[in-house]
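LAB NOTEBOOK - FOLDING QUEUE
OPERATOR: T.R.
BATCH SIZE: 2
PURPOSE: Compare the predicted structure-token outputs for two unrelated chains run back to back under identical settings.
PRIORITY: normal
REVIEWER: second-year student, initials M.K.

ITEM 1
FIELD SEQUENCE / FIELD STRUCTURE:
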Amino acid sequence: MLTTLAALEDLMTRSSADSKYMEMVKSGARFDHAYYANKHMPMVKSKLGDACESYTVDKGLAGGAPGAPPLYVGMCHIFCDSVEVFQGAFGPHAQEIMADIPSYTDLAPVIQISEVVVG
């Protein structure tokens, strides 16, 4: 299964893609977690339609060492059946989705597409 924002599926019968959008922590940067979770991501889900099987939203709390800040202030996982399914659904709406980023942050997202191996 591929993630772009989350989806757990029977991996015995198919693979999936996970697309991750991560916002690096930067001193003085703005990130509105409520807007991201309650407005932006539901909008993304509505644009992707059934191609987005599910998604998750994470809020960074800490780094690996005691007292260390998180590397990412926020992250989402979008789960789709494949990279092609994600790209086919995201592409037509990419401009509108990306144009909403300034509504919740002044950071540039880091994007990674992964294959869910266990989950």
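ITEM 2
FIELD SEQUENCE / FIELD STRUCTURE:
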Amino acid sequence: MENQLEQVRIKKVGVISLANTLALSSLFIALVLGIIIGLMAMVSISSFSSTLSPLGVKGPTKGQIALIFFLIFPVIAAVIGFIQGIIIGLFYNLSSKMTKGISLYS
């Protein structure tokens, strides 16, 4: 018995389904990156705040940095991921009519 590969063609994708998937993926990636970048920013701000305070310059507090990198950054990334998913899905559906879709083998 020969090992025959079964071919499946993806001719169309669900635009909203793809958008939701990319939004969630972007959210998780942004959460991880937000934690890393936020912690690095907190450390650097705490070291610079002592050098800037004699000049009367006040930088962001650690709480403001945490809010930006732990909450706002992931939400913005999820919204951008959703928009990207819509655009990619629409372009894929248009281009797959010309190229007959993507072939998958199992």
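REVIEWER COMMENT (ITEM 2): The longest strand covers residues 7-10.
FOLLOW-UP: none requested
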